[in-house]
């Protein structure tokens, strides 16, 4: 089977030659670099251009961290966090906490400012050896900088400055930012986030690859999957054969037809953080200039018992994109029961995945009948290779979609607004006038 199949037969969209032409133009802009945000297009050819030496260096550094620590604390937020978290969750064991621990674990910090979370983290690692990966492209983002200050102090208390330098790896800009200066001064190993790759498109740089290698994920397979998808969505590929082009076309057609919300869903709970990564990718790329589909998500079948009612009968402003997995890795069958008190003997002998599949098909038809168009993305399995392909597919479709929408998909001017207020409230030096003004507003 192909690495990824897209089914738009239940989307209710007929692709016209004009729509196809517009998508072709948008796709071309990603290669000709003539569109908005053209200095952030390094991700387009990233999978095919990652040097084997870079991958080897990442794997060697991950090995070093795994050898010296039970727990590797990965610090970052937004695009410097969600890609690694998404793949690590998908590839991990849902019940790892219940099993005897044989391998080092990667945990995440710096994606919030919660005192409870940070206290519990420090408390939980008290009796474990620790190391840290700190990730920030700008090197100045408050959440990871605060978390890193706390974790760095803990590492230095335990292992001294020299020991800390052996246990901390920084991933940041080539030359700029406080993290770069700090890493150089402290002598940390560093990896560079290429200038032309923005945060939410950086999962296939050391930003995603180092934490994932540290978590034991096969990053070469991840990159190979992405590379396969890079080829499958290239400029020369026929439109109908290019799943990213077709997906972008259909979702934009639905937007233009009045749909305002795209819900990404999956019947595999392990993919829940893929939803989160996708929401950031599409929300930050498209939500600007008063435009853009609102990216929402559901985990199924659980959310059929919460959001299912709304999706079926609420405002008709949404469509659904389902990521479906062909084959589970493990087998669980439903047994026959002599008494059949629960009335489930009609399922006896079936695999749970068959029941899950019928739920998926039943929901698809019900939602389509209820006025919710459905797109279906099928991946063969949850593996590093398939996830690499899925990530790149979504990135490519996002770049095309942003251009179809007429926005710059590679900036995020809107995320600055809250920072100004937060710095003013915290009396950051340089924000004196803003502090005074915000105090007035709060009186
Ligand atoms: O996609 C983006 O650019 C953002 O989500 C960033 O990844 C996020 O704000 C973190 O930024 P930084 O890596 O500079 O700390």
From TrEMBL:
- Name of the protein: Glucose-6-phosphate isomerase
GO MF terms on file? carbohydrate derivative binding; glucose-6-phosphate isomerase activity; monosaccharide binding
The biological process GO terms on file are: gluconeogenesis; glucose 6-phosphate metabolic process; glycolytic process
Question: In the record, what lineage is assigned to the organism producing the protein?
Answer: Bacteria, Pseudomonadati, Bacteroidota, Bacteroidia, Bacteroidales
Transmembrane annotation, as ranges? none
Which of UniProt's keywords are assigned here? Cytoplasm, Gluconeogenesis, Glycolysis, Isomerase
Q: Indicate the family of this protein.
A: Belongs to the GPI family.
Fetch the Pfam families from UniProt. Answer: PGI
Gene Ontology CC entries for this record: cytosol
The record's annotation in SUPFAM superfamilies points to: SIS domain (SSF53697)
Question: Per its database record, what is this protein's job?
Answer: Catalyzes the reversible isomerization of glucose-6-phosphate to fructose-6-phosphate.
């Amino acid at each position: 089977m192909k690495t990824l199949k897209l089914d738009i037969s239940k989307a209710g969209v007929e692709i016209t030659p004009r729509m196809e032409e517009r998508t072709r133009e948008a796709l071309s802009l990603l290669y000709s670099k003539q569109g908005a945000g053209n200095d952030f297009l390094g991700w387009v050819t990233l999978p095919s251009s990652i040097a084997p030496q870079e991958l080897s260096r990442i794997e060697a550094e991950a090995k070093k961290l795994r050898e010296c620590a039970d727990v590797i604390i990965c610090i970052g937020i937004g695009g410097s966090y969600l890609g690694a978290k998404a793949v690590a969750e998908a590839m991990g064991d849902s019940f790892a906490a219940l099993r005897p621990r044989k391998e080092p674990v990667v945990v995440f910090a710096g994606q919030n400012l919660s005192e409870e979370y940070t206290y519990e983290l420090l408390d939980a690692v008290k009796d474990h050896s620790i190391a840290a990966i700190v990730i920030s492209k700008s090197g100045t983002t408050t959440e990871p900088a605060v978390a890193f200050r706390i974790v760095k102090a803990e590492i230095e208390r335990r292992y001294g400055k020299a020991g800390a330098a052996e246990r901390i790896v920084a991933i940041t800009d080539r030359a700029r930012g406080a993290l770069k200066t700090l890493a150089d001064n402290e002598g940390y190993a560093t990896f560079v986030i290429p200038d032309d790759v923005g945060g939410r498109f950086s999962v296939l740089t050391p930003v995603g690859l180092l934490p994932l290698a540290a978590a034991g994920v096969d990053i070469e397979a991840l990159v190979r999957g992405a590379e396969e998808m890079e080829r499958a969505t290239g400029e020369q590929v026929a439109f109908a054969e290019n799943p990213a082009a077709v997906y972008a076309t259909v979702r934009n057609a639905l937007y233009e037809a009045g749909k305002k919300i795209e819900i990404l869903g999956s019947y595999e709970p392990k993919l829940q953080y893929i939803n989160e990564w996708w929401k950031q990718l599409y929300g930050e790329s498209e939500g600007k200039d008063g435009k853009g589909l609102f990216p929402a998500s559901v985990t199924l079948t659980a959310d059929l018992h919460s959001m299912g009612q709304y999706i079926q009968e609420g405002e008709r402003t949404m469509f659904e994109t389902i990521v479906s997995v062909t084959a589970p890795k493990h087998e669980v069958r439903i047994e026959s029961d002599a008494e059949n008190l629960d009335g489930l003997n009609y399922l006896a002998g079936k695999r749970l995945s068959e029941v899950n599949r019928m739920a998926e098909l039943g929901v698809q038809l019900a939602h389509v009948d209820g006025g919710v168009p459905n797109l279906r993305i099928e991946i063969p399995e949850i593996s590093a290779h398939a996830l690499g392909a899925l990530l790149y597919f979504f990135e490519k479709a996002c770049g095309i979609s942003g251009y179809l929408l007429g926005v710059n998909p590679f900036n995020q001017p809107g995320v600055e607004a809250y920072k100004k207020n937060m710095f003013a409230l915290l009396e950051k030096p340089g924000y004196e006038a803003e502090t005074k003004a915000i105090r007035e507003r709060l009186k």
